[in-house]
Write a structure and sequence with these properties.
about 350 residues, Rossmann fold, 12 helices, 7 strands, binds thiamine diphosphate, binds magnesium ion
């Protein structure tokens, strides 16, 4: 019998959600700093999405369910295993080849090509159903991705096949510099579910409890064979689009100053409930920092193994790949000789 997740979050779970949100913000800040120090590649801060990522993850069962992210959510998915954050760290440190995560960790890699992860999620969910496996698939995608053809094709197919998938649209008001007002003429992104033939709802994406409740209900539907759901989690992107962006060129500073901060809001709420205090806060921040120190030290100690770039692409490497492998190796030797 598939586990249902309708249960409300216990006090201990609320504290865990807070801890994971603090962790997500801390990893995001560190990734940003590493990029500014020239030690890490371009990355997309999670700031503003912590509540919806962690709230959603807590409504899923990491042993049976899958998450198919876009590129912003990885740092909030530690509930699916520290490996997910470790892979993100290796990725930004320039070692994607070393970031394979063990079997049983059900989170797909980040997807940069907008919205292409959405049909992948539908295929994965359809596959689970065809194999009679328990669980469901949740995919994250942005308001900008909701304008891509892949979203409509995936939504349509999911509705026809009634697959166990949850479409979680992160409406953070921006797609780089394109505001929501230029993204769609529909009344909401959730409204688009009507055309697919399954329910669509809008939730407060700055509230992890509201997101947990919505995803729990969608999960119940999915695992009991009632088909897909679309959830539009409304929030505000608090940072730049990526480390390569300067939002001060297109967002008025007054608008940014008014944007809700989910981490600060949830901290206040738990403090009011007597479930959080400065000591717990300090401990959560310290644990997050120590984890990141450890992962960065491990990542920076790695040396590049270019062979791994060419493994696991095709069953047999193509002549072009062999040529590229030889070029990369020759380049490495030349660089080594020049040192
Ligand atoms: C197919 C494709 N088109 C364009 C881009 C360039 N691009 C990268 S991120 C982005 C905006 C995405 O916005 P949204 O889906 O709202 O996600 P967010 O970054 O706000 O989380 C665009 C247009 C891309 N990566 N892939
Ligand atoms: Mg967006």
């Amino acid at each position: 019998m598939a586990k249902t997740t309708r249960d409300r979050l216990s006090d201990a779970q609320l504290q865990l959600v807070m801890t994971e949100m603090i962790g997500a913000r801390a990893y995001s800040n560190r990734a940003f700093a590493l990029q500014r120090q020239g030690r890490a590649a371009t990355n997309a801060p999670v700031d503003g999405s912590e509540a919806l990522v962690v709230g959603a993850a807590h409504a899923l069962d990491p042993t049976t369910d899958w998450v198919v992210p876009q590129y912003r959510e990885q740092v909030g998915l530690i509930r699916f295993g520290e490996e997910v954050v470790a892979r993100y760290v290796l990725h930004i440190l320039g070692h994607p080849e070393a970031g394979a995560i063990p079997e049983g960790t059900n989170v797909l890699p980040p997807q940069i090509s907008l919205a292409t992860q959405i049909p992948h999620a539908v295929g994965l969910a359809w596959g689970l159903a065809l194999q009679g496996k328990p669980g469901c698939v949740l995919t994250f995608f942005g308001d900008g991705s909701a304008s891509e053809g892949d979203f409509y094709e995936a939504g349509n197919l999911a509705g026809v096949q009634q697959v166990p998938v949850i479409f979680l649209c992160v409406n953070n008001q921006w797609a780089i510099s394109t505001p929501m007002s230029r993204q769609t003429a529909a009344e909401s992104i959730a409204a688009k579910a009507e055309a697919f033939g399954f329910p669509g709802i809008t939730v407060d994406g700055t509230d992890p409890v509201a997101v947990h409740e919505a995803v729990s209900a969608a999960r119940d539907r999915a695992v009991s064979g009632e088909g897909p759901s679309l959830i539009e989690a409304v929030t505000y992107r608090l940072g730049p689009h990526t480390t390569a962006d300067d939002p001060s060129r297109y967002i008025p500073s007054a608008e940014l100053a008014e944007a809700p901060d989910p981490v600060a809001t949830f901290r206040q709420r738990l403090t009011g409930l007597g479930l959080w205090d400065d000591d717990l806060q300090a401990r959560a921040e310290q644990e997050a920092d120590e984890r990141m120190d450890r992962l960065v030290t491990q990542g920076e100690a790695l040396t590049l193994n270019p062979d791994q770039f060419f493994e696991n692409v095709y069953a047999q490497t193509t002549p072009r790949m062999e040529r590229q492998r030889a070029e990369l190796l020759a380049d490495q030797v030349a660089r080594g000789a020049g040192q």
